[in-house]
Write a structure and sequence with these properties.
The protein has three domains: about 280 residues, Aminopeptidase; about 120 residues, Alpha-Beta Plaits (2-Layer Sandwich); about 35 residues, no CATH class. Helix content is about 35%, strand content about 20%. The protein is built from 13 helices and 19 strands. The strands form five sheets. It has an eight-stranded mixed beta sheet, with helices on both faces. The protein has a four-stranded antiparallel beta sheet with strand order 12-14-10-15. Strands 4-5-19 form a three-stranded antiparallel beta sheet. The model has no long low-confidence stretch (mean pLDDT about 95).
């Protein structure tokens, strides 16, 4: 492998300026849910990418813009890597909970505190600074295409259409995302899959208006209608009863199962963190982790009907609504599950229950033994001096590199450079200077190993 010591030395020498550039990006708010500062941040990113030699531009979508960039490697036969992360951030409310203003990017010792420090502007800036360090020392080992999403914190609703419109532009040999941070114990994590999501609302109607509850002898109660519908969908054993729901589920391979066995899952620590005495179905150990990552389910996210305020109000509600989310696993199709749910309701006497699609994300999982996964794992070993946690899938959902890889038919992996306790989506989010600078070296190492094949 190319000697990267000049790259690492460059990062150490220019650390103060690289930290200042990260602080500059953090100081530009980019809250996608309220469209606060997003376009200004996109324009700032184009400027900062140009400063390190990346040809960049803003590309409009059906929603908030994507920032796209390219840089060409020094070799004509160099492979191409598609890098995804996002520049939008979560809201910072309530600001009174913060030790310092959330967009001040104040440095306190080894910490930089601010909204988006780890999620994901620190992860994003690590790529820009890796480009700078490589170009100033050993050269660019690969071609890189960058997608910086402006809607990730809002579910990336415009990304699928963007990808379909620009498939030729996004052609690459592999996809990589940087987002979030390390596992507990400061262990770097490499992820090879994400769960899918189908989010729906079911609505039932009774009378044309709320009525005195004595009328429940004559008028159907829509809340009961939804209770019965929900009971038909999922039983006390936790199994989803929609016909064909599990047909497409891809079970874990022996290699993926072995990765779960090596993950260091701690039942008691997880129970303490979740605030429960036992897991569903009484599972434990690696079986609990497998259930978390490889089993689809159905969750009631919220139920609204009638009156539950102070005092007594005996009424018969006119309407009832329930929001339900399905976590899906590899090879399940949210559109197929939606149709199966509609048919299930129709076939079980609930044809009058309205069903609304509130959004979906396709699941994705790439092979754990892919050459690109081995590249990312080896880079983590070299930079951090320890074995990373290799996760065959994640329990959460998102449209990041593994999702892109599935869409484009290429290998993919996700990782992140932040500290394990980075306070994601909460007050006082932070990244450490150590993790940020090491993350720059990590990105450069991944690219160099990928370029060598």
């Amino acid at each position: 492998m190319t000697d990267l010591s000049p790259v690492y030395a460059y990062v150490d020498t220019h650390a103060d300026r690289m930290i200042a550039d990260l602080q500059r990006l953090i100081r530009q708010p980019s809250i996608s849910s309220a469209n606060i500062g997003v376009r200004e941040c996109a324009e700032l990113l184009v400027e900062m990418m140009g400063d390190v030699g990346i040809t960049a531009r803003v590309i409009e979508t059906d929603g908030l813009p994507v920032v796209y960039g390219e840089i060409t490697g020094d070799r004509p036969d160099a492979p191409t890597l598609l890098i995804y992360t996002h520049y939008d951030v979560q809201p910072a409310d309530p600001e009174s909970d913060w030790e310092s203003p959330p967009f001040e990017a104040r440095r306190v010792g080894d910490r930089i505190i601010g909204r988006g420090t780890t999620d994901a502007k620190g992860n994003l800036m690590a790529h820009l600074k890796a480009v700078e360090a490589l170009r100033a020392t050993t050269g660019m080992p690969i071609n890189i295409k960058f997608i910086f999403d402006g809607e990730e914190e809002s579910g990336s609703p415009s990304l699928p259409a963007f990808v379909e419109r620009h498939r030729d532009l996004l052609a690459a040999d592999a996809a990589l995302s940087f987002d979030g941070g390390f596992d507990a114990g400061d262990v770097p994590r490499v992820s090879l899959g994400t769960s899918g999501l189908l989010f729906v609302q079911m609505r039932a109607r009774g009378g044309s208006k709320d009525l005195h509850s004595a009328r429940a002898r004559l008028v159907p109660n829509p809340a009961w209608k939804l209770v019965w519908a929900l009971a038909s969908i999922k039983g006390p054993d936790g199994r989803v009863r929609i016909e064909g729901f599990y047909d497409a589920v891809r079970p874990p391979t022996p290699l993926e199962r072995s990765l779960l066995e090596q993950a260091g899952w701690d039942d008691e620590a997880q129970k303490r963190d979740l605030g429960v005495d036992e897991f569903l179905g009484g599972v434990s150990g690696v079986d609990a982790l497998e259930q978390l990552l490889f089993t689809p389910t159905c969750n009631i996210a919220g139920f609204a009907s009638g009156y539950v305020g102070e005092g007594n109000k005996t009424l018969l509600p006119a309407t009832a609504a329930v929001n339900v989310d399905f976590r899906l696993v590899a090879d399940q199709d949210p559109a197929d599950i939606f149709q199966r749910l509609r048919k299930h309701l129709d076939d079980h006497g609930f044809a009058d229950v309205e069903l609304h699609d509130l959004g979906s994300i396709e699941p994705s999982r790439v092979p754990a033994d892919s050459p690109f996964a081995r590249v990312v794992v080896e880079a983590a070993r070299r930079v951090y001096g320890r074995e990373p946690s290799l996760r065959p899938s994640e329990s959460a959902s998102g449209r990041q590199a593994v999702w892109l890889a599935g869409k484009l038919g290429i290998p993919g992996a996700g990782t992140g450079i932040g500290p394990p306790d980075w306070r994601g989506h909460a007050a006082n989010e932070f990244i450490t200077v150590h993790h940020y600078l090491a993350g720059i070296k990590y990105a450069a190492t991944i690219w160099s190993l990928f370029g060598e094949g």
